[in-house]
Amino acid sequence: MSERQEELKFAYWVPNVSGGLVVSTIEQRTDWSVEYNQKLAQTAERAGFDYALSQIRFTAGYGADNQHESVSFSQALLHATTKLKVLAAILPGPWSPAVVAKQIATIDHISSGRIGINVVSGWFKGEFTAIGEPWLEHDERYRRSREFIEALKGIWTQDNFTYRGDFYRFNNYTLSPKPVQKPYPEIFQGGSSRAARDNAASVSDWYFTNGNTPENLKLQIDDIQVKAANNDHKVRIGVNAFVIARDTEEEARAVLDDIIAHAHVEAVHAFGDAARQAGSASPEGEGNWAKSTFEDLVQYNDGFRTNLIGTPRQIAERIVELKAVGVDLILAGFLHFIEEVEYFGQKVLPLVRELEETALRRKAA
Ligand SMILES: Cc1cc2nc3c(=O)[nH]c(=O)nc-3n(C[C@H](O)[C@H](O)[C@H](O)COP(=O)(O)O)c2cc1C
């Protein structure tokens, strides 16, 4: 297993869809506008965040009545920042790898190498039906995503690229210019199911998963890393967490209670039905949301389960526990984004760096 000496990376969810990151009627001082998001991106890069992750949704379905498109929105954030890397969510099906390879290569030039992508495989049948896209079975969606990623890597690194897949074909294709980043912009991919993990263990640079306990995450990560080692593939792991950092634990817990007490019950159930259909549709029944409770689903990627809820010290300690089981990146969501990203940068991040140092020194000794 790899030596865990690199500093943990931090990403935040871009609120490019309305309604924030929790399906709750509680007040959220978070806005989905371009102006708010540009200010948030500037705050996040000052606070020490490495990445911003945009979301792709074509329809509302439940909550999130407005949804800005991820690739265009990512460009607005790149224009407003200088260091932050921005991850554009991409959905195979609506997007073809030829278009994505070309678009992202150009954005890589515009942004001096700060764009990456998150290939999502789709979970919402209603969305695909609404835009007239065929809905594939669970594992077929992941087989398509795998070909999608293989094709992108081929286009970005080779001239005269030829590919014969079941979903995509390329004939002697040369993309020019190639991206600035070498070998190519980072490719993230998310899920939890067997198929998602197998893609992580063979083609993705990063694997994103829903919030969970360190014990459960360790099972997933070990499974992926053993397979990745057999495939001679290197993959890093990012985990979702909804962060509620307050000066006292009582305050933080009270915020969580309030979010759940104000849950938008109908919207949570609607999401749960669609998500469970997608998650448990995986043949082994281990997909995201297969085991989520009503409370978990109020944060739609199980972000409460990671339990980054408490004082800055409690949170920092839990973050380094996650690092110890093989997590490389924390993907954070917040209730009031700008102010909480700032607080996180001031109060939590320095403690994480201290604890990482201490762990390193202990190891060296
Ligand atoms: C961090 C993260 C971000 C995701 N972002 C999106 C997104 O923007 N749009 C989308 O349709 N699905 C998104 N997904 C959903 C995944 O692509 C996938 O459909 C879902 O996790 C179910 O996968 P599973 O059946 O393998 O567990 C995301 C998942 C994760 C973990």
UniProtKB/TrEMBL annotation:
Keywords: Flavoprotein, FMN, Monooxygenase, Oxidoreductase
Descriptive protein name: FMNH2-dependent dimethyl sulfone monooxygenase
Record carries keyword Magnesium: no
Single GO MF annotation: alkanesulfonate monooxygenase activity
InterPro entries (alphabetical): DMSO2_SphG, Luciferase-like_dom, Luciferase-like_sf, SsuD_RutA_monooxygenase
Domain Luciferase-like: 10-328
UniProt cross-references to Gene3D superfamilies, sorted A to Z: Luciferase-like domain (3.20.20.30)
Keyword Zinc: no
